[in-house]
Amino acid sequence: MTDSVPHAALDQLREAVSGEAVTPSDAAFDSVRQVHNGMIDKRPAVIVRCQNTADIVKAVRFAREHSLEISVRGGGHNVAGRAVTDGGVMIDTQTMKGVHVNPSTSRVRAQAGLSWNEYNRATAAYGLATTGGVVSTTGVAGLTLGGGLGWLMGKYGMAVDNVRSVEVVDAEGQILTADDNENPDLYWALRGGGGNFGVASSFEFDAHQVSTIYGGLCAFAVEDAPKLWEFFGEFSADAPDELTLVMAMVHAPDGSGHKIVGIGMCHCGDQADGEKAADAIRGAATPLLDMLGPLPYPIQNTLLDAGFPKGARNYWKSAYFKEITTDTVAAMVDRFEQTPSIMSGMVIEHFHGAVTRVPATATAFPHREPGYNLVLTGVWPDNAGDDANIAWVRETFGTLTPYMSDAAYVNYLGDDDGARVQAAYGPCWERLQSVKRTYDPENVFHLNQNIAP
Ligand SMILES: Cc1cc2nc3c(=O)[nH]c(=O)nc-3n(C[C@H](O)[C@H](O)[C@H](O)COP(=O)(O)OP(=O)(O)OC[C@H]3O[C@@H](n4cnc5c(N)ncnc54)[C@H](O)[C@@H]3O)c2cc1C
After folding, report:
1. Looking at domain 8-92, which CATH architecture does it have?
2. Are 376 and 317 in contact (CB under 8 A)?
3. 377 φ, ψ to 5°?
4. Which pLDDT belongs to residue 302?
5. 148 within ligand 1 shell (Cβ under 6 A)
6. Does the 212-418 domain belong in CATH 3.90.1150.10?
7. What crossing angle do the helices spanning 326-337 and 225-237 adopt, rounded to 10°?
């Protein structure tokens, strides 16, 4: 039990909420406070495992009344680890798993604690899907609030582009609706501005008719990397909206440590067109492993999950490319050869199609130029590897900086990237600050990639 919060107040909180209030003296405390990134080791005074919006209201008011810092967890995946507070109130929405699909409107009301695999399972029953991440264990809430890129984005835009309404609990503990009609400025800011404006309790999404896609992964020898990057640049530049592509230098999943190049694809249109795209990928070099074919969309979304186990240690850096030249590729291949961990990789995500037809300031996610994003995913198993792996990510990012722009995707920023937040929001920054002044002038919600009021 923490010293900073009176026992009687915690007892009252326990009585007041439908979910649980977990404190350090509870047996479950250590497992509940854990998030995806094993480097995060923070101890909240209390974790409110919310069951509904009323629980969130009570948790916000409790924190304010006792002057405690607030953190908010959705899926708990963010590598910066700001879903957990040291000594404050962790508002845990991960326990809110409700989802209702309306097949006649193709709209989905999803509570904030769903992961994308849970969301996908619910919508797949109706032959529907919404753009989520490329890894299905990621949370709907954090991913959507920051932008949300994924396998369906070429055709259907980012997750934010599919949000029609959000229910939010603000810094005063009031329940607000944010949509085109009510609080439209908040609605704008929530679509990219992260957890800066309140606690999202649920989202209303558009869903689309997607069931069997043509997708999967194809792996090649790392020696083929230069010609594969060249192929990828040309092939992706002509990709139709239906085809979303990701390319990565990673390690073979068998634990051998073999370095490989993987190309992942998802074609959500005509199967014959999907097969043609797959043939082009297969023909780019000699595949070591060809897992391309028709797949249910929810399976496509799980193909990369095993590469990112919960509890592994993570340190990432990311930015958008200015250009990918022969020099860029040579530098990437050279740095990849020096990775200290066989769990780490370099991932390039291609932006095109529907994502790029939304004006840069129409939502608070401004990255609407066609192009590529790079993520250096430093992942390793235990703390003995911390120094070497963090150094590898930092040095690699330094080497690649000349090829990168200032722009960054806020959901990939790390704990030490605070100085890059303004650049990440680019032309949306001033309006975001203004909305922050309206809805959270005291910066109650600051454990995030913060937009100071
Ligand atoms: C393995 C892995 C794969 C990823 N793949 C993708 C991908 O394909 N596409 C992509 O776009 N991103 C991807 N990401 C990044 C991901 O979008 C962010 O990490 C995102 O923040 C995760 O959301 P979460 O809810 O799981 O995380 P959390 O850590 O729970 O939340 C992150 C932050 O979001 C805010 N937040 C969370 N829930 C709420 C809520 N209910 N109300 C208000 N604020 C809230 C809080 O500020 C919190 O600190 C990936 C991350 C990982 C680790």
Report:
1. 2-Layer Sandwich (3.30)
2. yes
3. -95, 90
4. 97
5. yes
6. no
7. 130
pLDDT digit string, tens, across residues 227-274: 999 999 999 999 999 999 999 999 998 889 999 999 999 999 999 999
Q: Mean pLDDT, to the nearest integer, of 420-433?
A: 96
Atom of ligand 1 nearest to the CA of 448: 47
Closest C-alpha among 194, 164, 166 to residue 178: 166
Residue 70 near residue 50, CB atoms below 8 Å: no
Report percent pLDDT > 70 for the chain.
99
H helix runs in 21-104, sequence order: 29-33, 53-65
Looking at the structure, give the CATH architecture of the domain made up of residues 99-209+428-439: 2-Layer Sandwich (3.30)
Q: What are the extents of the domains in the chain?
A: 8-92, 99-209+428-439, 212-418
Task: Give the contacts of 81 (CB within 8 A, at least 6 positions apart).
Answer: 35, 37, 39, 40, 42, 415
**Ligand 1 atom closest to Cα of residue 195:** 44
Is beta strand 212-221 parallel, antiparallel or unpaired with respect to 259-267?
Answer: antiparallel
Q: Is 192 in the pocket of ligand 1 (CB under 6 A)?
A: no
Residue 127 has pLDDT above 50, yes or no: yes
Token duo for residue 296: 């249910």
